[in-house]
Request: fold
Amino acid sequence: MPLVQVQVIKDVFNEGHKREIIEKITGVMVSIEGKALRSVTWVNIVEIDSGSWGIGGEALTTEAVRTMQGAG
Reply:
């Protein structure tokens, strides 16, 4: 039984985004290992508080991630 943990910064993804993440990651696992894996694939989304995630020595905030999303 696979457990896939996805860590994201809090308040970046809404409930619809989270459902989509869960559905698509489950779909990827099923595409690799077969349909029987669907019912035993666990996807866990963990939200990290804004400013509690560091990249390159700098704290990453919700606002910074939203700015990155707008640039893409």
Observations:
- The first strand starts at residue 3 and ends at 9.
- The mean pLDDT is 94.
- The CA atoms of residues 12 and 62 lie 6 Å apart.
